[in-house]
Queue: 4 jobs
Job 1
Amino acid sequence: MIKKVFKIKGMHCTSCAINIDGELEDTDGVKQANTNYAKVITEVEFDPKKINEEQIVKLIKKVGYDAALVTN
């Protein structure tokens, strides 16, 4: 398992964060998602053998938000 942080655009409230978490956590390969409305990020712990960063971004976009991987 690895953990990555994604910047989210378009969240308006904490319900938005809950929607993102729900979509991600219902996906095979995602162990945990923790979206923070105040910080406009989501931390995703996932199995890179089952899902990758690009697929995670697409899932977030499917729910209606823009997302980008945060790189250090």
Job 2
Amino acid sequence: MLEILKAVLYGIVEGITEWLPVSSTGHMILFEEFFPFHQSDEFMEMFRVVIQLGAILAVVVLFWPRLWPFCADKKQNCIKRDIWTLWFKILLATLPALVLGLLLDDWLDAHFYNFITVAAMLIVYGVLFIVVENARKGTKPRISTLADLSWRDAFLIGLWQVLAMIPGTSRSGATIVGGLLLGASRAVAAEFTFFLAIPVMAGASLLKLVKFGFAFTGQELTVLAVGMIVAFVVSMLAIRFLMAYVKRHDFKVFGWYRIALGAVLLLYYFTLYQPA
């Protein structure tokens, strides 16, 4: 029962931090330090990624009319060209992370999933958010709708997403910063980040599932299912919050939060952390 409760808490953390640009990995490291699961290392490596499927489903449900490229009327044999174009741009932006993810997935987990790396990336991108927002102040966005996003823009945002392979960077944080630097409005940068997550996170989850295998114990399957369901529900709320927030505010508050969290991680690591 305690493991199920931890899965619920883990799902809450995932659902909030996956979409807000604050690094889900940084929060997961802290969570696992104080509420460790009594599961195998192999299961936990898979669980940290596959729980994201619940978060992905929230994007699909919330934005379904803007993602489904076919007409709702079954009598009409038509397609929505603008949505097809958007999907091809999403796939183009996915390619850099797909290629490098297949090559470097295990190596990155082994060398960079640690306190120092995560804390450093939290602080670096926190500062970057503040600097970018200050530089953009008073300027009109070049990209005010997803239709304005060129093929080049999409690919460059995809390159920014590659940086998120380093734990602590935050996938949403990296792609939003990339979008802002290219001249996208905050809403467009956030929306494209949500949509880009669908193939990226689905692919990463499939890769982890294949590596782990499908021979789950009853408890493992329950923990995974509970975490995904909670992540889905909380993600629905987090996405709605962020889309409403960026209409009236900038991203600097997330930058300051990242800097504070990074400092907390470093302080904990150098004063209280005791390796197992």
Job 3
Amino acid sequence: MFYRLAGVHHTRYETARALWPIPADRKQVIVAGLIALVAPFFLSTLYLGSYMLPWLIWSSAALSLTLLMGMAGQLHFGFASVMAIGAYTSIHLARLGIPFELALIGAGAMSAVIGTVFGAAALRVKGLYLVIATLAMQYLVDWVIINVPAISGGAQATLRTPEVSFLLFPIESLTSRYYLALGWAALLAVFLMNVKRTSFGRALTAIRDKDFAAAVIGVDPFRYKLMAFFTSSFMGGVTGAMLAFCFYRAVTPEQFSFNVSIQLVAMVLVGGLGSVIGGFLGAAFVLLIPIVLTNFVAGLAASGWLAISSNLLAHVPLMIYGALIIGFLLLEPLGLAKIYDNTRKYFLVWPFRHSRS
């Protein structure tokens, strides 16, 4: 079998601390990277622009929230507002003639500052009270965007993104926007995998498990929670700018509503809390499974295999989708990433049994 620990001796700290110490893992990453790089050459514009591009961007959003929810254990039900701040900030900065690279940094900085302000106020509470505090941020930001014409142009206004370039390459074609989103998603994935191995990541893990115990051993919970809010909000703000410039090409207040925050939380939970690959799997599940189910049910109805009314036909995919989410939470609460890990362990020790812990 190709999945073996043969040749991995852990005789040096450098190899023991590698991101992918097992050769099969490195090969999988290389193959996935090559497929992502050549995707624009063999995928149609429909699949590239309607499936791959939004999947990469929303995976980046899920990874940004994973740092806060999965690693630090802080609930956030207003993350769509963080992305909205980044999207509107980047558009206004780009319209002022600021280079797009600096506009992205400015978008992340604005989201990080505002997100940290709300985070500082919310960190005095926990659990459901923290959820309510982040909901207050969502609704407050929504109200400001809608009622301040200088930001959005009005409740019904659409703010178009200007023409920009990234590192002297114009971001106008679908291929260029895809590669920009791919680069940002890869950067976030590598960043989060490395964060887990740093003192910052270990401190967040200790706070997530038990903040009182973390304080006893010298970890300042308030400081590290603020750092988690700042870092997560910065990444979310840049992702919101990516969403505006690479996918929507124009933004409205409805694109960052409370429903989007709920979808982001679902991506993190279904994918697996604290898992990098779970961010990608959760985004794929939330974005693509409803489309697949809708096409599947519509195909059954068109072929005569499913005789239901048109009204019920519109709700059946949502019912199946909800049942799938409940099934995952019941059968595997640790998400899709745990299913992948169990499969990986099966091949790692085959033909012997693997641990299900």
Job 4
Amino acid sequence: MAASENMAVIADGQGRTLSLRRLTVLDRLRLFKAAGPVLAENAPWFGMAVLAASVEAIDGVPVPLPSSEAQIEAAVVRLGEEGLSAVAEALEQRDASSIEQLAGNSRGTPT
């Protein structure tokens, strides 16, 4: 299996360095399994789980993809508000950039 694609390295409000991974389809499938059928349908809860699962390392220390509800919750607690906010902002910027490219409206495109 190929290693996940490293997306970005960001800093959170606590000064920690967070390395992010792009979740693969298999990663997301495993995250659904870890969350279980009820929590996987709870959009706010699962959204936080995706943010936590998107962190590949904290200050250079690898963070494995959570494989249970308890591991997801532990990752959320470890990241806290500052970490989750930084990850959300980075993913939002990445998604906005992807949308611009798909639409052909990336910076430098003549209008």
